[in-house]
């Protein structure tokens, strides 16, 4: 098994551990918006994003998602999307960690991002707060070559089995995801894309009653990823 994270606190961006009250609500919404803001605000778009590369292989609404260009690992062309169907050649958002959210809002409102009036001021603020204080350097915790989370499977199991089974089931197969014609389960996704799994464990799933576990320490969240990777994939 991969090396286990043993520190009591695993820090992310500088301010996250100190957030309370409505700021915590705000950053949690930002994590959902980064995942799929179109679902969160109830928008549907059929054409490609104007800044999405012509040679890109994704079409339509998904090209508007932040994750499609900047990645679930927040590293864009330097991360998991350095090749394959999701490659765009676009940089990630890692350089904006701990930056002034107001500065990030200005960038989000530029012509390249093309949000226009589809996001409210509150949405811009939430997304900027997430980009500044909600992202993590996932390569410290998930092995990029093996895609294995460096967590404690026993602790992850305790959290998962007491929190997540109502929807996903004890074996992670109550909800079926699809990739083409093949069914995928939680164990499938956790092994195929652990970065997406970690993001959703931390922030929840857009448009669904999935709770955010960001109130837990990052170590515990990674332990849940490790347990999910032990679930049946087929």
Describe what you observe in this structure.
The chain is mainly α. The chain folds into two domains: 19-135, no CATH class; 139-228, Cytochrome Bc1 Complex, Chain D, domain 2, CATH 1.10.760.10. 38% of the residues lie in helices and 3% in strands. The protein has nine helices and two strands. Strands 1-2 form a two-stranded antiparallel ribbon. Strand 1 and strand 2 form a beta hairpin. Helix 3 crosses helix 4 (121-133). The longest helix is centred in the N-terminal third of the chain and has 21 residues, at 21-41. The protein is globular. The model is unreliable at 1-11 (pLDDT under 50).
Evaluate the radius of gyration.
17 Å
Give me the strand/helix succession: HHHHHHEEHHH
Shape: globular
Largest sheet: 2 strands, antiparallel
SS class: mainly alpha
Secondary structure tally, helices: 9
Secondary structure: helix percent = 25-40%
Tell me how many strands there are: 2
For the record, give the distance between the C-alpha atoms at the N and C termini, rounded to a whole number: 21 Å
- Unreliable runs: 1-11
- Domains counted in the coordinates: how many? 2
Strand content: under 5%
Q: Order of strands in the sheet with the most strands?
A: 1-2
């Amino acid at each position: 098994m991969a090396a286990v994270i043993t520190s009591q606190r695993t820090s992310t961006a500088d301010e996250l551990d100190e957030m309370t009250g409505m700021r915590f609500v705000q950053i949690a919404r930002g994590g959902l918006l980064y995942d799929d803001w179109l679902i969160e605000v109830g928008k549907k778009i059929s054409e490609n994003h104007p800044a999405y590369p012509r040679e890109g292989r994704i079409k339509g609404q998904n090209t508007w998602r932040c994750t499609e260009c900047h990645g679930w690992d927040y590293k864009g062309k330097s991360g998991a999307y350095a090749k394959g169907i999701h490659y765009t050649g676009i940089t990630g958002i890692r350089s904006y960690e701990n930056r002034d959210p107001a500065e990030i809002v200005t960038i989000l409102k530029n012509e390249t991002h093309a949000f226009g009036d589809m996001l409210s001021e509150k949405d811009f603020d939430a997304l900027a707060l997430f980009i500044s204080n909600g992202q993590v350097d996932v390569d410290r915790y998930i092995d990029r070559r093996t895609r294995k989370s460096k967590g404690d499977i026993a602790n992850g199991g305790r959290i998962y089995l007491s929190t997540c089974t109502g929807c996903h089931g004890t074996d992670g197969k109550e909800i079926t995801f699809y990739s083409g014609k093949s069914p995928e389960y939680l164990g499938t996704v956790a092994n195929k894309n652990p970065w997406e799994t970690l993001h959703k464990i931390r922030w929840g799933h857009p448009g669904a009653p999935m709770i955010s576990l960001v109130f837990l320490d990052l170590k515990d969240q990674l332990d849940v990823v490790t347990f999910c990777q032990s679930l049946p994939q087929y």
